[in-house]
Every structure is written in C-alpha cells, then in structure tokens.
Amino acid sequence: MRIKGDIIRTVRKQKKLSQVTLAAGICTQGTVSNIENKNVCDSLEILDAICKRLNLSLESVLDDNDEKKLTSLLNQVEELCNTFEHKKAHSLLKETSINVADFQNKELEVRWFYFMGITNLLGYNNTTDSLFYFYRADELGDSNSIYAILSVNSLGIVYEMADELDKAQVYYEKSIDMLKKMTIKMPIEATKVFFNTAKFYSLIKDYAAAFDLSSQGIALNKTYQSLYMLDLLAYEAAFNEFMKSPNLKAPDFNSAKVFAAFNDNQNLLAVIANDEKTLTR
C-alpha cells in the first residue's frame, strides 16, 4: 500500500526517536526506512503499530483514497462491534460501494472478512455466512494478522453456539497458538482472543486455564496502559479464581465492579450483584 512516509518521518523526528527505536518490537529498521523513504508498507498490522507508537491515526498516513475510506469504515464498524451493535455494523458494511477485492492490500481484505463474519454471527446468528467469511480470513491472513487470528477464534464461537464443544476447543486453542507465534508486538485486539477463550474454558469447567487466559488479557492491557475489555476480563479472572480455589470463601469482584462502573456496563454489574449473593462457601 502507498504511505505518506514523510508524515511518519517528521513525527518520529519530533519525538526524537531513531528508526531502530521506532521499529523495536514491531518490525525491522529496514521496514521503517522503506515506509519513510519509499512510501510503501506491505503490512497493515505493522503500519498500525507504528502509527500507535507515534500517536498518529492510520488514516492520516494512507495515500490511497479508497483504502482510507475503507479503513475509516472498518474503524467505525469495530467501534460498533465493541459496544455489541453488530446489526448496525453489518448495515454499514453492506452499504459501502467499495469493492475490497480490488485492493492489493490483503490485510485490509482479511479485516473486512472478519467483520463480515462477526456481524453476521452476532448480529443475525447467520452461521452459514459467518463460517464462509471466517474461513476466508484465515486463508488470506499471515501469521501476524490479528484479524485472521480473531477469525479462527470466532470459528470457536460458531461451534460453541452449536454446542459442538470439541470442535470449538480446536479453534480456540489454534487461535491462542497463533498469538504465541506472532513475530510482531501483540496488538491490543488480541484481548478478544484471550477473553473469548477464557469464557469457553470456564464453560467446560477448566477454571485454571480460564483464569490464566483472563490474566494474560489483563497483562496485555497493562502493556498498552489500556482499559480494553478490562471489566469483562477482571470478572472472568475473579470468577475463575474462585472456582479453582476451594479455600476462597467468595470471589473478589472489586476490580471488575470498578471497571464495569467506569464503562457503565450495567449488564455486568447485574451479573456481579447476583454472583455476590450466590457464590459463597
């Protein structure tokens, strides 16, 4: 994809970062050099990580108008999905006239397929279409594509919803294994993978695994100094710690309540209130 490399170079220098420092944990110094001097980048994940390190929006450095428009659209879709407005997000995807297949940017296509899959699944319970989109994302994505990993994780959700738990476990485990093999810094979106998989292991009563996965999601938030899904992760950690620890008299939901109140997550606060009445020894 074409990049406005001069913007990245200017902001990097303003922040007094070398190319090596900017690249650390994300990519090679040569990749940063290509972005700045040749105005090209083959990886949307790498470019997004660099922009986040420089406090730049991804849209501000993309040089292709259609790619800009699609990236902006997918950002809106992601925000809607994060607030469980999957039907509204699906409508946005269906209304666009942009043809994602026209792009050379495979990662943008992977992201598109993931959101088409997740909005079909959670917005309309359409497992047939969602399976198609998730499998396509998995096929197109590489080892560092977080949306390919999320698609594999979402295949676990599909099979869990169908009560095919053995199949679900295969895909949940595969998504976690894919995260471990990433050669770039793990993006904050990986939080969803940890949370979804933790919920599954809690469902099958492997509380130790669920607690460990929740804790990894919380640790990832600390890395980014983020609150991304932290209320849900804190709840899962507290619940599963209680379930795996017979010596605990009651779960400690204090952190989960603070984050849920901050996010105005009334549904979670109601769940916690009920658990505090019933989960005692």
Describe the protein in words.
The protein has three domains: 57 residues, lambda repressor-like DNA-binding domains (434 Repressor (Amino-terminal Domain), Orthogonal Bundle), CATH 1.10.260.40; 116 residues, Serine Threonine Protein Phosphatase 5, Tetratricopeptide repeat (Alpha Horseshoe); 94 residues. The protein is 70% helix and 0% strand. It contains 15 helices and no strands. The N and C termini lie far apart (58 Å). α9 runs antiparallel to α10. The chain is mainly α and 281 residues long. This is HTH cro/C1-type domain-containing protein. It comes from Enterococcus haemoperoxidus ATCC BAA-382.
List keywords for this structure.
281 residues, mainly alpha, 434 Repressor (Amino-terminal Domain), Serine Threonine Protein Phosphatase 5, Tetratricopeptide repeat, 3 domains, HTH cro/C1-type domain-containing protein
